[in-house]
Structure formats: structure tokens, C-alpha cells
């Protein structure tokens, strides 16, 4: 990992966790050519889903944004694992897809996913600017409030 990325993580008080193992019949990532596809990451902290429930019902906006930040941290951890610990191989974060377990009348999914977008840009710099989707869902696996997957261009 570059000193720049390490420094940014340190400045943000972030230590990347060990990448989570798959919870079902899938792989955590696939590399095809110069593209890294990461499976959906949940807001796991300390080995458990840290933010559960329905946003706009049992989960406040700020807590949901924190869940998105945790997903982003887990995206970085998974990318690091896929790249042998070398995040300098990330040329560009191409796209994230953010899924928010939402109450029927909750319409601020974009604000929730900003938690992940902001963190990824803060850590990766210009290479972290990405396209994205922010989508409301009825529910998510393990009652997680947020799930985010990612596509990255790698060297």
C-alpha cells in the first residue's frame, strides 16, 4: 500500500479489517483482465453486522451513513486482499452499487450512500471518484441496513 493511501487511512483513524469470508455460495471477488469485481459488502465491524434494520423506520439517516462508511472500509479490505495487500494497483474505482434497506416512504438513499462515496474519495483521492447507484430495498441479508458492491480498474 502506498504511503499516501496508508497516511490517508491513518489520518481518518481507519485500520482495514481482515476481509470477510463469503456467507453463502459465491466468491468475495473476481479479477477479469484489469477489472476487479467485489461482491457486496455489509457494514461489518468486529465480526458482526454493526447496523441492522430498516432506514427511515428503525435506523436514522446518520447511522445509515455510518453503515455505508463501514461497507466502504470493507470494500477497501476486500480489494486489498484481492490485490495481495497492494492498493497501489487500484487505478480507478469505476462504480459502486449501494443498496439501502428502506422504509416505504424513505427517499434519501443517495444521502446514505454518500457515506461510502465520501470515504472512498478521501482514501483513494482522484482514483476514488466513481459512478454509482443508490437503491432502496425492502430488506437485505442478515438484516443489514446497507450493502455495497464495487467495480475497480486495476494495474
Automatic annotation (TrEMBL):
Pfam families attached to this UniProt entry: YjgF_endoribonc (PF14588)
InterPro entries xref list: Endoribo_LPSP/chorism_mut-like (IPR013813), RutC-like_sf (IPR035959)
Domain Endoribonuclease L-PSP/chorismate mutase-like: 8-146
Name listed for the protein in its UniProt record: Enamine deaminase RidA (YjgF/YER057c/UK114 family)
Amino acid at each position: 500500500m502506498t504511503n499516501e493511501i496508508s497516511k490517508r487511512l491513518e489520518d481518518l483513524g481507519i485500520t482495514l479489517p481482515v476481509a470477510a469470508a463469503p456467507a453463502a455460495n459465491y466468491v468475495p471477488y473476481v479479477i477479469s483482465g484489469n477489472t476487479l469485481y467485489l461482491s457486496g459488502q455489509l457494514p461489518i465491524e468486529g465480526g458482526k453486522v454493526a447496523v441492522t434494520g430498516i432506514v427511515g423506520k428503525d435506523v436514522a439517516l446518520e447511522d445509515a451513513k455510518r453503515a455505508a462508511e463501514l461497507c466502504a472500509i470493507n470494500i477497501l479490505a476486500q480489494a486489498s486482499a484481492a490485490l495481495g495487500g497492494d492498493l497501489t494497483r487500484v487505478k480507478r474505482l469505476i462504480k459502486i452499487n449501494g443498496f439501502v434497506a428502506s422504509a416505504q416512504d424513505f427517499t434519501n438513499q443517495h444521502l446514505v450512500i454518500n457515506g461510502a462515496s465520501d470515504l472512498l474519495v478521501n482514501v483513494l483521492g482522484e482514483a476514488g471518484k466513481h459512478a454509482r447507484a443508490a437503491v432502496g430495498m425492502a430488506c437485505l441479508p442478515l438484516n443489514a441496513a446497507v450493502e455495497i458492491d464495487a467495480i475497480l480498474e486495476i494495474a
